[in-house]
């Protein structure tokens, strides 16, 4: 029984490691046995073939739908909403595809460096269950939203599968391409945040050790304490540098995704309010709410994770002050703690103010206000034109 379960688990891991290649997300797959990323000629050609077929399907399928809608005598604002939906549907996959072609190797190299940092932290920091489970609900909820958005597109286009068999899978994949790409961004941020938590935990452990032996401290112990503080600062700097490179790589994709979905969610909310009487509540929930609802929650989860990651700076600074206050007579340790605090202040200014897309809950609430404002404007225009 256990042998069969292990076999199933092994096969599931193999499917998962090749799935990003099959959906055209990357040309690399992660070999779990050797803990390394690999690619070959077939994977490089597959990423081009899958995405190009998906783009051709979008242009053919959605253009026919637009031509059909124009023939009917409907409100002009509704026609504008449908046309804008088509334009904003095709823009994120195009930009995501270009970014994958340009930044695929760079992104994988960033993951490799993050993996090396994680191994370095494991050599000095003991694994903690509380840290490992702190972000788990947020990650599972993110996975659920991405999978739901991926599957709901397949349900919407279920009639195409009856006629074209498995070919519409390329359409579903290309529509979810930007969401899958930003899921990778979310996973890297979650790993960086988890390592920040471990560094913070290590500082608290040093404070506890220093408190227990504060009456009997020699030069060797102070030197070891200073070495630990310097090591933590170096690892923190390397993590911040990876985070800054990740933000520079994904800023435009994040900005475009937010801009596109701002208009898309606004027009869908307008369509929900206007079409409910004509199409019924079920169709409004299945086609409109099921589209913009998960997107709104997805943005909130990403913004909330980024805010948690930024909050680790202030928490780490407080713990550094606590370490410094245990025994102020230790001048070398006190100097290292002051340098660490100064570094954190400078790093906050660099990391938080260098990006034109600042992700936090304030950004999310601002986006929701813009969505509601746009939908109200479209509803007013609809009744004026009618």
TrEMBL record:
Keywords: Cell membrane, Membrane, Receptor, Transducer, Transmembrane, Transmembrane helix
One GO biological process term: sensory perception of taste
Name of the protein in question: Gustatory receptor
UniProt lineage: Eukaryota, Metazoa, Ecdysozoa, Arthropoda, Hexapoda
Transmembrane segments: 42-59, 79-103, 140-158, 164-186, 364-385
Family: Belongs to the insect chemoreceptor superfamily. Gustatory receptor (GR) family.
Function: Gustatory receptor which mediates acceptance or avoidance behavior, depending on its substrates.
Highest taxon above the source species: Eukaryota
Organism per entry: Stomoxys calcitrans
């Amino acid at each position: 029984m256990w042998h069969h379960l292990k076999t199933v688990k092994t096969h599931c891991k193999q499917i998962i490691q090749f799935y990003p290649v099959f959906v055209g997300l990357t040309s690399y797959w992660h070999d779990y046995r050797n803990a390394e990323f690999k690619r070959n000629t077939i994977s490089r050609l597959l990423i081009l073939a899958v995405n190009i077929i998906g783009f051709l399907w979008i242009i053919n399928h959605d253009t026919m739908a637009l031509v059909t809608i124009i023939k009917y005598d409907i409100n002009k604002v509704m026609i504008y909403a449908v046309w804008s939906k088509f334009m904003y549907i095709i823009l994120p996959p195009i930009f995501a595809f270009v970014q994958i072609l340009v930044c695929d190797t760079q992104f994988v190299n960033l993951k490799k460096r993050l993996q090396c940092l994680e191994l370095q932290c494991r050599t000095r920091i003991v694994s903690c269950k509380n840290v490992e489970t702190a972000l788990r609900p947020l990650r599972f909820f993110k996975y659920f939203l991405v999978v739901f958005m991926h599957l709901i597109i397949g349900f919407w286009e279920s009639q195409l599968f009856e006629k074209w068999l498995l070919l519409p899978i390329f359409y579903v994949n290309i529509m979810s391409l930007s969401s899958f790409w930003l899921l990778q961004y979310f996973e890297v941020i979650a790993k960086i945040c988890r390592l920040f938590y471990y560094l913070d935990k290590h500082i608290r452990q040093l404070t506890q050790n220093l408190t227990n032996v504060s009456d009997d401290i020699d030069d060797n112990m102070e030197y070891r304490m200073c070495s630990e503080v310097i090591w933590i600062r170096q690892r923190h700097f390397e993590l911040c540098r990876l985070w800054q490179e990740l933000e520079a790589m994904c800023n435009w994709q994040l900005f475009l995704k937010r801009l596109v979905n701002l208009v898309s969610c606004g027009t869908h909310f307008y369509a929900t309010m206007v079409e409910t009487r004509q199409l019924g509540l079920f169709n409004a929930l299945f086609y409109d709410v099921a589209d913009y609802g998960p997107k709104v929650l997805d943005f909130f989860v990403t913004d909330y994770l980024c805010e948690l990651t930024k909050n680790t700076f202030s928490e780490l600074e407080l713990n550094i002050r606590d370490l410094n206050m245990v025994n102020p007579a230790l001048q070398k340790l006190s100097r290292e703690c002051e340098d660490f605090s100064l570094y954190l202040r400078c790093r906050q200014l660099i990391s938080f103010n260098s990006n034109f897309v600042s992700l936090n809950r304030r950004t999310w609430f601002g986006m929701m206000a813009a969505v509601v404002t746009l939908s109200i404007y479209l509803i007013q225009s609809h009744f004026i034109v009618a």
